[in-house]
């Protein structure tokens, strides 16, 4: 059966946040074109709710939908009780009732709703950077980190503002069904397939002028040479910059250091190879640029918490299907 997603929409909802779950989870399919998620929408009483853009949505369900869901998503809101430190008692009770039994996700200022229900006390979370000071004043027990794109704390996940909700959606799809499925969703939605959760939000801070130079071509060059040793001097030389300038410019454009960005691309490439090929782990390590299976194991475990063999077994149905298809085509 498809994974059941219930989206709880409140008054003064953020329009893009409401569109993301249906679009991203709604188009995720396996290799037989079967839907992997069943996304449904509810409001507190099953009635219409309005947004600041001047329209309302009319859902098919009320709060009872949460009981049947595997994942509950709270889109952002632009005001209301959560911005005052409280929440409608019925909504708070419904969220507390499913906490610990369902995966709960907030997008943008949806974290205010979870915090008002008491679900984030003592837990790490994020929200839109512009609302961080208000959030801290209202909910001091939450371990807020407004610097990151999203926080995955197991059964509760929170994202930063607006577009960061797409990053969290792809992260969830990747965790549930693998890199290959998530990448297909990203391609169909014409968006970047991966931005690391720990990557910095694009907060309004003064940055030095770019002066026409960019590391984009060097990043493309790196992606085409993941199996090769790539040190900082070689990267800076390719970009025709000093090491110091290259490192600064790279971080300004990606939010990450060159080493961390490269390591993330190698991990993602290794995951894709493990899912879609039958290559030995040693060869996956070599092609991904880790050199040895031991190094691959360490980096993959740090990223997703499992070994290469365990990761491949988790997504073996996809890999087996691809392997069978390739063998048939070759014959």
TrEMBL record:
<dbReference type="InterPro" id="IPR029062">
    <property type="entry name" value="Class_I_gatase-like"/>
</dbReference>
<keyword id="KW-0805">Transcription regulation</keyword>
<dbReference type="InterPro" id="IPR018060">
    <property type="entry name" value="HTH_AraC"/>
</dbReference>
<dbReference type="Pfam" id="PF12833">
    <property type="entry name" value="HTH_18"/>
</dbReference>
<feature type="domain" description="HTH araC/xylS-type">
    <location>
        <begin position="216"/>
        <end position="314"/>
    </location>
</feature>
<protein>
    <submittedName>
        <fullName>Helix-turn-helix domain-containing protein</fullName>
    </submittedName>
</protein>
<dbReference type="InterPro" id="IPR018062">
    <property type="entry name" value="HTH_AraC-typ_CS"/>
</dbReference>
<keyword id="KW-0238">DNA-binding</keyword>
<dbReference type="Pfam" id="PF01965">
    <property type="entry name" value="DJ-1_PfpI"/>
</dbReference>
<dbReference type="GO" id="GO:0043565">
    <property type="term" value="F:sequence-specific DNA binding"/>
</dbReference>
<dbReference type="InterPro" id="IPR002818">
    <property type="entry name" value="DJ-1/PfpI"/>
</dbReference>
<dbReference type="InterPro" id="IPR009057">
    <property type="entry name" value="Homeodomain-like_sf"/>
</dbReference>
<dbReference type="GO" id="GO:0003700">
    <property type="term" value="F:DNA-binding transcription factor activity"/>
</dbReference>
<dbReference type="InterPro" id="IPR052158">
    <property type="entry name" value="INH-QAR"/>
</dbReference>
<keyword id="KW-0804">Transcription</keyword>
